[in-house]
Design goal:
The complex is a heterodimer. Chain A folds into two domains: 1-65, no CATH class; 83-182, Alpha-Beta Plaits, CATH 3.30.70.3270. Chain A has seven helices and five strands. Chain A has helices at residues 4-7, 28-39, 43-60, 102-106, 141-145, 170-173, 196-199; strands spanning 83-86, 112-118, 124-132, 151-156, 167-169. Chain A has a three-stranded antiparallel β-sheet. A two-stranded antiparallel ribbon of chain A has the order 1-4. The longest helix of chain A is centred in the first third of the chain and has 18 residues, at 43-60. Chain A starts with a helix and ends in an 8-residue tail after the last helix. By secondary structure, chain B is α/β, with parallel strands linked by helices. Among the domains of chain B are: 1-82, Roll (Ubiquitin-like (UB roll)); 309-355 and 543-667, no CATH class; 370-536, Dimethylsulfoxide Reductase, domain 2 (3-Layer(aba) Sandwich); 686-784, Barwin-like endoglucanases (Beta Barrel). Chain B has 24 helices and 35 strands. In chain B, the strands form nine sheets. Chain B has a seven-stranded mixed β-sheet with strand order 34-28-33-29-31-30-35. Chain B has a five-stranded mixed β-sheet with strand order 2-1-5-3-4, sandwiched between helices. Chain B is globular. Chain B starts with 9 loop residues before the first strand and ends with a strand. Chains A and B meet through helix 4, strand 2 and strand 3 of A and loops of B. The structure holds iron/sulfur cluster (4 copies) and FE2/S2 (inorganic) cluster. One iron/sulfur cluster binds at residues 97-103, 145-146, 148, 150-151 of chain A.
Chain lengths: 207, 785
């Protein structure tokens, strides 16, 4: 369709289709006849029949379609970007985050803050980590930039809170250690592409 | 006396088809940089000798491959930066550097400012052709500040080079890695410079040169700052921040009088504490080297100050009541001008025992020489090839001069003489042609006579001086000053070979000397008859600014207001005002803007790094008399008759250019009047002090209460002594002065020699200046306590 059509404001030259409306009843009697005719059409009972059938299905045959929110939630797409999860390594149970600070840097609403330190094992320890959800716009950049697939978007989409600036700490987002076996690998924004192997050049090793 | 003239011949060279001007004898790399042309280079450090460790600076000169960092420019040279061969070499070198390099940029402190990252990207290394089994290398701490991760080290040798050629400690060196030898087949299958570089790299790591695990050095941290990768980091900074999170604030170091250009690097302290905090200090390491105080003594801010109106009222009252203001040299030019204005308008006395002797000495020198100020700077000193240091504990008092002394030996094939009553084990290690004299305190005039004897042009000397020198005799003078005449004379001949530029460094001992006037005259005589240029070391921080701007008094009388010093009422940036109604908070140097006057006679701007919400001196001024709204509005009013310019603070630059020129602020104008040669006096050998002598001198890295407040400066207040002397004294000593006594801990300074002990003066509360008076040496009784 070209824009020309919208610019042409001359009604008479266009192909308008006119609605073929019945004439409205004119007398009181005619009106009464129309009401009775519409009320007692057999389609009414067809509709009631459907309702009844579904009621029987739901109540007696276990085919309930209503989701019992908030007790029950529908599955959402892995690409949906809700409140963040912090994942752990499956083998050791350690948190994956290495404290590189890239998520903090890339965050366009500047809502991630972290503190790191040199720990007794000579490693970089993430000592504090927060996301301010009053500011987060769920853009997914943090998940995309994370080199460790440590920060990902989870499925928790309820953001209502008592305070506008509610925030989460590292521990709140981290997979509980006893639920490690339930941790899902993330397939959304920033996950490894299916053809990743093809894009990597191999490096010689002298062992 | 006259201005120091530096003549530089310029030649024309062509780099990649562009015709450029370059200083004759300059390295190609520096010439290119000065003309804003980029040549890749990793291992080269301006002001240090080329080591050829990286070889990446390969360029083609008139058809031949050479290293840009060690080939000197010649008229008409034609230089090509990239040829296909050279690009292949460089690419191979970067691949080699990446062999077994840990893939840990994600946690590495250097990430974002890492030269290995940068060059790997610049040369587009996207695949690896080389490999060799890795060697396990353990992370170690070399000192209280140094943290070394050999896994990340690319053995560019920048750290060892700066430590040897600039700092002078030579505390680190390359050591055996114990890695596997390169397979011979590589030799034929890879570019040859890359192979040679790899061969060396594979064999080495860096380690303390004394063979122990610790460097035992001056902890300046300069090796950290030159390290191109994350191998050397300060222990305090490891893993605490990414480079890109830090805000860089150009400033001036508040401790030594060098006025080193630094950057305070800040970010919010923590998630819960959003106040800005300084995480580290960095510098333009190609052009300026810091000492430990400048690098690590940064967290001395006066935190959490708000406007305390009662204290302010009390301060105004105190100022109105005061007869004297006592202060020290940790003060900006602008504040010094405020105090001077108070003196002029309200007749207050200005008492500053730290600077007063220096101011006197400058005046004596000015009268004798006709010059308004000494003619040398650190920059001009670095171009000399003979250096003499008198009257200063080089290692403690003046890091910048120590670096220059050492650098002259290493870079200019120079020679040096060091005269001081306290022997220092480090100075003789600067070079084979360094001679040190450990003379009696009090014989400073004799040192200058010896210098006249050694260097003066006999034709220019007044006849009475000539006669006196003949009477004294060279050998007798040498022996009197603790030297060995025969050995010295032999070496001195060598030292004088091919020497044409001489610099005399004058230290603080001279300023408060009983014979200061004669010393100043002798210095002038040395300038006139032996062609020495002179650099004086202002005692601390902004001592030169205070000396030029303020008209100081000899003593404090009556009600005294102390500014960071003792007093009946105190203005203090030391954070001790809370709960004390006799103290008003002031901003510390990292919370103020203003200017400093450096040893090199440069007026340099410093900026605010940390928040301060209390009252400043200018507020007090506004209350007491007319004052502008901002402190920096005083800047253009600094006294032009003392050499300052009417330049506004905001017009001052704060940078170095690519050629390394210091463009910060401006240089003081120095005027030179013609005067006659001064008449000098003879000296008395009996002035030499014997017995228990204590020297007022701080440990390196300590200058004032402010350096002491910093958490990475560990040197305690106390009595520093050589190992033997400390053993005699035991753990604590009581020192009895003529006018008081003090009991202090005895601390070993392993680099000191002899029996003279050094008492710190950096704690104003201890009032050490009062015990000593003007002279830095005092005969005392020392008892075990
Ligand atoms: S990007 Fe990933 S690994 Fe890096 S700090 Fe953020 S969560 Fe941790
Ligand atoms: S030194 Fe540089 S290349 Fe090596 S891990 Fe650190 S940032 Fe990465
Ligand atoms: S520690 Fe740093 S500066 Fe020293 S050789 Fe290694 S990479 Fe170079
Ligand atoms: S801290 Fe200074 S003196 Fe010590 S090893 Fe490093 S550069 Fe040398
Ligand atoms: S910079 Fe010239 S060899 Fe490294």
């Amino acid at each position: 369709m070209s824009l020309e059509q919208f610019k042409n404001r001359n009604v008479g030259t266009q192909n308008y289709v006119k609605l073929d409306l019945d004439h409205s009843p004119t007398t009181g009697w005619c009106q009464f006849k129309q009401v009775v005719k519409r009320t007692f059409k057999p389609e009414l009972f067809v509709g009631l029949g459907v309702t009844f059938r579904e009621m029987v299905n739901a109540l007696f045959r276990g085919k309930m379609h209503t989701t019992q929110y908030p007790f029950e939630k529908l599955p959402i797409s892995p690409r949906y970007r809700a409140i963040h999860d912090m994942l752990r390594l499956l083998e050791s149970g350690n948190y994956r985050c290495i404290g590189c600070g890239l998520c903090e840097k890339i965050c366009i609403s500047d809502c991630i803050s972290m503190e790191t330190k040199y720990d007794e094992n000579q490693r970089k320890e993430v000592s504090e980590y927060t996301i301010n959800f009053g500011r987060c716009i769920f853009c997914g950049y943090c998940a995309e930039v994370c080199p460790e697939l440590a920060i990902v978007h989870g499925g928790r989409y309820e953001n209502a809170s008592e305070q506008r600036a509610s925030f989460s700490l590292f521990e709140d987002m981290l997979t509980p250690i006893d639920q490690l076996n339930l941790q899902q690998e993330y397939a959304g924004f920033g996950a490894i592409s299916p053809n990743a192997d093809e894009n990597v050049k191999s490096t010689p090793l002298a062992y | 006396m006259s201005e120091v003239q530096i003549v530089e011949n310029m030649v024309d060279i062509t780099i990649d088809g562009v015709v450029c001007k370059a200083k004759e004898g300059e390295y190609v790399l520096n010439a290119a940089r000065a003309n804003d042309i980029f040549i890749p280079a990793i291992c080269y450090l301006t002001r240090c000798s080329p080591t050829l460790a990286c070889r990446i600076c390969l360029v083609e000169v008139d058809g031949k491959q050479v290293y840009a960092c060690n080939s000197k420019v010649k008229e008409g040279m034609n230089i090509t930066v990239d040829t296909p061969d050279i690009l292949a070499e460089r690419r191979a070198m970067m691949e080699v550097y990446d062999v077994n390099h840990p893939l840990q940029c994600g946690v590495c402190d250097q990430s974002g400012e890492c030269e290995l990252q940068n060059y790997t990207l610049e040369l587009q290394v996207d695949s690896q052709s080389y490999s060799i089994p890795d060697t396990k290398r353990e992370t170690t701490n070399w000192s209280s500040v140094l943290h070394y991760d050999p896994g990340l080290c690319i053995v560019c040798e920048r750290c060892t080079t700066i430590c040897k050629d600039m700092i002078g400690d030579a505390a680190i060196t390359t050591a055996k890695r114990g890695g596997e030898a390169l397979d011979k087949s590589w030799k034929d299958n890879m570019p040859k410079d890359a192979y040679a570089m790899w061969n060396k790299l594979q064999k080495s790591v860096i380690a303390p040169s004394n063979g122990t695990g610790s460097t035992d050095c001056s902890d300046c941290g300069e090796c950290i700052s030159v390290c191109p990768v994350g191998a050397l980091v300060s222990r305090d900074f490891v893993y605490t921040s990414n480079a890109w999170d830090l805000k860089r604030i150009p400033a001036v170091s508040a401790h030594s009088s060098d006025g080193f250009a630094i950057y305070y690097e800040t970010k919010p302290a923590a998630i819960e504490d959003r106040r800005e905090k300084i995480f580290r200090v960095t510098n333009e390491w190609n052009f300026v080297s810091l000492d430990g105080a400048a690098r690590f003594g940064y967290d001395f801010e006066n935190q959490d100050v708000s406007k305390d109106e009662t204290a302010f009222k009390a301060a105004v009252e105190a100022m109105n009541k005061a007869e004297t203001i006592r202060f020290n040299s940790v003060i900006t030019n602008e504040e010094a001008l405020m105090l001077q204005t108070l003196k002029e308008k309200k007749g207050l006395k200005l008492y500053n025992p730290e600077v007063r002797p220096f101011q006197n000495f400058l005046k004596l020198y000015n009268e004798a020489s006709g010059a308004s100020l000494y003619n040398g700077t650190t920059d001009t000193a670095l171009k000399c090839n003979f250096v003499v240091s008198v009257g200063g504990a080089l290692r403690n008092d003046s890091p910048g001069m120590k670096y220059a002394f050492n650098n002259i030996q290493k870079m200019n094939k120079g020679a040096g003489l060091y005269f001081h009553p306290v022997a220092d084990k480090l100075i003789p290690t600067f070079g084979k042609t360094v001679e040190t004299f450990t003379h009696k305190a009090g014989l400073e005039e004799a040192t200058l006579y010896l210098l006249l004897e050694l260097f003066a042009d006999a034709d220019k000397l007044p006849s009475d001086v000539k006669d006196y020198l003949a009477e004294l005799g060279r050998d007798n003078l040498i022996n009197m000053l603790g030297g060995d005449a025969d050995a010295f004379n032999k070496n001195f001949e060598k030292m004088m070979k091919k020497k044409d530029s001489f610099v005399l460094m004058v230290g603080e001992d001279y300023y408060g000397h009983a014979k200061a006037e004669n010393l100043a005259k002798l210095i002038v005589l040395l300038e006139e008859t032996a062609g020495f240029q002179v650099v004086m070391n202002p005692p601390k921080a902004n001592a030169l600014g205070v000396a030029l701007i303020c008209d100081l008094d000899d003593e404090a009388t009556g009600y005294t207001v102390g500014y960071n010093e003792n007093g009946d009422f105190r203005l203090s940036a030391l954070g001790d005002a809370k709960g004390d109604s006799n103290v008003l908070d002031m901003p510390a140097m990292n919370q103020q803007e203003g200017t400093f006057t450096t040893l090199s006679k440069r007026v340099v701007p410093t900026n605010v790094a940390l928040e301060y919400n209390g009252y400043v001196l200018n507020d007090l001024m506004a209350e007491l008399m007319d004052a502008p709204r901002e402190t920096i509005e005083w800047t253009p009013h600094l006294p032009t008759d003392k050499g300052y310019q009417a330049m506004a603070f905001d017009d001052m630059l704060n940078t170095f250019d690519n050629a390394g020129r210091d463009n910060r602020g401006y240089l003081l104008n120095v005027t030179y009047d013609e005067v006659e040669l001064p008449k000098v006096d003879k000296f008395d050998e009996a002035d030499g002090l014997d017995g228990d002598i204590v020297y007022r001198c701080n440990p390196p890295r300590q200058f004032s209460d402010f350096s002491d407040k910093a958490h990475q400066i560990f040197e305690p207040f106390g009595l520093y002594a050589s190992e033997d002397r400390a053993k005699e004294l035991g753990e604590k000593a009581e020192i009895l002065f003529k006018n008081g006594k003090i009991t202090v801990d005895v601390i070993v300074d392993a680099k000191m020699e002899g029996d003279i002990v050094a008492l710190s003066d950096f704690k104003s509360a201890q009032n050490v200046y009062e015990l000593f008076g003007a002279s830095r040496y005092q005969k005392v009784t020392i008892r075990k306590a």
